[in-house]
Write a structure and sequence with these properties.
Strand content: 35-45%
Distance between the termini: 38 Å
Strand order of the largest sheet: 1-2-3-14-11-16-9-6
Number of helices: 4
Oligomer: single chain
Helix content: 10-25%
CATH superfamily: Alpha-ketoglutarate-dependent dioxygenase AlkB-like
Radius of gyration: 17 Å
Bound molecules: 2-oxoglutaric acid, fe (ii) ion
Number of domains: 1
Order of helices and strands: EHEEHEEEEEHEEEEEEHEE
CATH topology: Jelly Rolls
CATH architecture: Sandwich
CATH class: Mainly Beta
Structural class: alpha+beta
């Protein structure tokens, strides 16, 4: 992790308003939580916390188990629609979650498969550590550094907008880049906001708090010289209709 601001131990659930930006947006419950060491990243409209949730041994075991039991989407569910054209996604993907939930993005809708005990255990570990509850997990598997995820925001309507997204990484450490929406491209109006680069490690947990996903894009760029598998799980709170 290169750029960094303050190191802190979050002690109690009622510190919730600090991580989500403003109390007035709170629309969910947050329970008591434990304490892993989170590093806090605070920039203009960005609030993220990063810490190591699992030791190397625990993370090795989880990765091995994931490789054994997870099955990934195929066919249309493994494609995205960009500017009217369908493309294979440059990685594998699957979602699990509460019954009836699905996740719509880039022209596709990913239905949640039922929870698996392994995923429930990880979800509950994250809830114990952060106090936040999740009803859906999107899993991305990058076979090596040539698999990637392009710049996007996780700001779909079916996500509870002010709820944090918890991102657990297993396997190959990879760069993860945040860019402020007004700092991107030729017509950028905010050249004064530099990107934020994190390195997401094996066993690392990144909390993306409100309002990060309303203002900042994130991506996992290609890294052709990396050859190991990485699995990322983003635990989310979807709106239940
Ligand atoms: O693999 C990652 O770390 C990124 C995952 C992500 O951004 C997503 O699932 O929306
Ligand atoms: Fe994302």
């Amino acid at each position: 992790m290169d750029l960094f601001v303050v190191k802190t131990k979050r002690k109690r659930a009622d510190s919730q308003s600090e991580s989500s930006g403003s109390k007035k947006f709170k629309s969910y419950e947050k329970s008591e939580c434990n304490v892993i060491d989170f590093k806090k990243f605070r920039l203009e409209n960005l609030s993220c916390d990063y810490g190591i949730l699992y030791s190397k041994r625990e993370a090795d075991n989880l990765l091995k188990e994931c490789e054994k039991i997870l099955c990934y989407n195929e066919g249309k569910l493994a494609k995205i629609c960009l500017f009217g054209k369908w493309h294979n996604i440059p990685r594998k993907q699957v979602a699990h979650g509460d019954e009836g939930l699905s996740y719509k993005f880039s022209g596709n809708s990913i239905p949640a498969r039922p929870w698996l005990p392994l995923l429930e255990n990880i979800r509950d570990d994250i809830t114990r550590q952060t106090g936040y509850k999740f009803n859906f997990v999107l899993i991305n598997r990058y076979k090596d550094g040539s698999d990637y995820m392009g710049e996007h925001k996780d700001d779909e309507k079916d996500l509870e907008a002010d709820h944090p997204i918890a991102s657990l990484s297993l396997g190959q450490a990879r760069d993860f880049i945040f860019k402020h929406q007004d700092s991107r491209g030729k017509n950028s109006t905010r050249r004064d906001i530099p990107p934020l680069k994190l390195v997401l490690q094996h066993g690392g947990l990144l909390m993306m708090n409100y309002p990060t996903n309303s203002y900042w894009y994130h991506s996992l760029p290609c890294r052709k010289k990396l050859f190991n598998v990485r699995i990322n799980m983003t635990f989310r709170k979807m709106v239940v209709k």
